[in-house]
Amino acid sequence: MRWWKWLGLAGIMGVAATGVVVARAERRRRAYTPEEIRARLRERAEEAQAAQPDGLRS
User: Fold this and answer.
1) Helix, strand or coil for residue 13?
2) In sequence order, what DSSP letters do the residues of 27-57 get, joined into one string?
3) C-beta of residue 49 within 8 angstroms of C-beta of residue 57
4) pLDDT > 70: what percent of the chain?
5) How far apart, in whole angstroms, are the C-alpha atoms of residue 16 and residue 10?
6) pTM of the entire structure?
7) What radius of gyration, in Å, describes the C-alpha atoms of the chain?
8) Can you tell me where the transmembrane regions are (predicted)?
């Protein structure tokens, strides 16, 4: 039954590694200032409007 211990340890390590990845992504996401977020959203909106055919623009 020793392999069960190794399997459990590997599972715990996997959960811990996933937590680290999620925490890094969250920290990176929260590092933006509100002005940076607004600017990115405006850029995306302009790109989306430019990609639409002329008949569908509002």
Assistant:
1) helix
2) HHHHTS-HHHHHHHHHHHHHHHHHHS-GGG-
3) yes
4) 90
5) 10
6) 0.48
7) 22
8) 6-23
